[in-house]
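Something for you to look into today, if you have time. Just paste the record in under my message, thanks.
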Amino acid sequence: MPRAIDGSKRKDHRKKILKLAKGFRGRRGTSFKAAKDAVVKSLTHAYESRRNRKGEMRALWITRLNAAVRDEGISYSRFIDGLTKAGVIINRKALSNMAIEDPSAFKAVVATSKKALGM
């Protein structure tokens, strides 16, 4: 069976890969052979980064919470321990947003945490 050189499927496949490689520098964006490897690698990194983003966002929320509760005279770990003992179930994202957007409500949550710890 002869090798397909000018077939539409072959052209479509190459066009798809080169479209994904748009914006890549040098041969990686223009040559199919180089673009193929670059696209595979970039899609792999994109897949991994979508999963890593979840942990990075949680770390950001925890950092923001730590800064906010330190102003109230308590550490982050003691704050979370107090919330657990008080039976307050609010996720870190909501707490972080509360600390930024509604400081008075956040102070009430910190007070609840301190009360549960006996501070």
About this structure: Residues 10-117 form a domain with the c-terminal domain of poly(a) binding protein fold (CATH 1.10.1900.20). The mean pLDDT is 95. The CA atoms of residues 33 and 119 lie 66 Å apart. Helices lie at 8-20, 27-30, 32-70, 76-86, 92-101, 103-117.
